[in-house]
Amino acid sequence: MVKLLLVINTLLTLPFGIDALAAPAEVFAQFGLKLDAGGALVARGYAAALVGYGLLLWLLRHTRDRAVARPLLLSMVAFNGIEAVIQGLAGVQGTALPVILANVVVHGLVCAACLYAYRGQ
After folding, report:
1. For this UniProt entry, which segments traverse the membrane (predicted)?
2. Which string of DSSP letters, residue by residue, matches 33-47?
3. Which residues, including other chains, have CB under 8 Å from residue 19's CB and lie 6 or more apart?
4. What DSSP designation does 29 have?
5. pLDDT tens by residue, 27-43
6. CA gap 79, 56 in Å, rounded
7. Are 19 and 85 contacting, i.e. CB atoms less than 8 angstroms apart?
8. Alpha-carbon distance 119 to 26, whole Å?
9. CB neighbours of residue 76 within 10 Å
10. pLDDT tens column, 76-106
């Protein structure tokens, strides 16, 4: 289950990060967010972190070492839980288009699955 969660989290982070590095305004526009030059700069910083995190998860996807798997699972709980809250607030407050709520569901489910796997480690 850990390997599957590492792959799922890679798919949530790496492609989005690459796209946001290349074209932050276009990527965030799909959620109804308009970025000025400063916003694009911050978005690219976020994107760089996603690329790095996605690569880490991908490269460690075959680990069977509990001392490696547990911290990775906890980091995925934190990432997905925080993303669900931030994006949920943006959707509810009208900062972003309601389509962002689909992301909230995905991040919430992945967070719960990672927490379940963490507890089983």
Report:
1. 38-60, 72-90, 96-118
2. ----HHHHHHHHHHH
3. 27, 47
4. H
5. 999 999 999 999 999 99
6. 14
7. no
8. 38
9. 26
10. 999 999 999 999 999 999 999 999 999 999 9
